[in-house]
Amino acid sequence: MLAAWGFLANCALCLNVQTGIVDMTPPEPLPLGGYTARKGALSQPGGDHLYARAVVLSQGRKKLAVVSFETLTIPESLVDEVRANIPKGIDLCLVATHTHCAPDSQMLNKRMTLSVPGISNYQRKWLDWTAGRLSGLVRDTLRRPSESVDGLAIRQAFVTLNRARRKGAHPDPTFTMLSAGRRDLLASFAAHATVYDEHRLQPSGDWPGAFSALTGAAFLPGAIGDMSPNVDNSKPGSAITQLVCKARSALQTSRPRSITGILRIIKQPVRLDPATPSPAFMSENNVPEVLAKVMVTKFAPPTATVTAWSLGKLAVVGVPGEPTAAVSRRIEAAGRAAGFATTLVISHCNGWCGYILEADDYARGGYEATLSFNGPNTAERVVEACGLALNKLN
């Protein structure tokens, strides 16, 4: 009898893992997002297929669908549509890889009804098409055979594949892979998907897409707010190949650690200040404050939520924006204080409230500050929400 109880207890901690993939290449040319210098030019024939990859983790009645989508950002209206069309009771982490060579995700943003040079308007047709394929991916993945495992394996390698893109930034060199058995599931690293520049007019998943194609893992961007890939992009194709091969090689030689325990999922609202244009935004766009306020409300969501999950001593914190390395270090410290051995900070999860900068960094201005929509206290608000989520997880 005792042996039977022990077996049941162990089974209660087992994870069921399911994976799926869907082609997200649009059936017609569309404007690519990420570089306003393209001036709304339509994509050209050729290039790479774009994909979304799903990993579903189940334990008892808890189900978590982590979906990595090769796109620029995740508008909240897209999250709402996908959630409405997947079975109830499934927690969703919908994450953008942040490639700058996919159809402009502002077409999926219901708020974007204002014409902004180089930015696409909301298009109901493409929201329906995209949400339909992503929700279909989740449903199809749930129907696929599952693999039961005792837990996950984590491998972490330290690589010099990212560099600072803002003054005072300190890169986190940690490249992470989560696996189940011999199957790579989720990878994360902090570097923008910007090996290709604005001159690329063909679709591409950039380096995260190439890494996923090589390993089969769904890619989750780390704290990319002030991090670029550390490559020579004069020959972007070669640069991408070198980056992903170096990353895979480093991971293959790193020692795996076992991650077991109870799967927990938490959603924590962020106490965002009202959307307001930064001084950098008004200067860069050369518009009066009244118009600038209207413009930022089209980009900035009225609410934001941190989505976090944990397995044993691993915590994964999904942030609905682009935190810098400094912000990430504060969240990781909150994770350690909450008892987690490893805390992964993920950008572009279930929404996009812009760049998340420390107050002094916000005051310095620059490109990232133009797309920081909720004032100088945004980092404080996000770190607060992440800390609350981490404490609830443990």
Short description:
Helix content is 31%, strand content 25%. With 394 residues, it is α+β, with helices and mostly antiparallel strands.
Please characterize this protein's 3D structure.
- Helices cover 31% and strands 25% of the residues.
- With 394 residues, the protein is of the alpha+beta class.
- The protein folds into three domains: 2-27 and 45-143, no CATH class; 152-222 and 233-258, no CATH class; 265-393, no CATH class.
- The strands form five sheets. The chain has a five-stranded mixed sheet with strand order 4-3-2-1-5. Strands 10-9-8-6-12 form a five-stranded mixed sheet.
- Strand 2 and strand 3 form a beta hairpin.
- Helix 2 crosses helix 3, helix 4 packs across helix 5 (236-252) and helix 8 runs parallel beside helix 11 (378-393).
Mean pLDDT: 96
Count every helix, treating DSSP H or I runs of 4 or more residues as helices.
11
Radius of gyration: 20 Å
- Pattern of helices and strands: HEEEHEHEEEEEHEEHEEHHEEEHEEHHH
**Strand-residue proportion:** 25-35%
Spatial strand arrangement across the major sheet? 4-3-2-1-5
Distance between the termini: 31 Å
Ranges where pLDDT stays below 50 over 5 or more residues in a row are 1-9
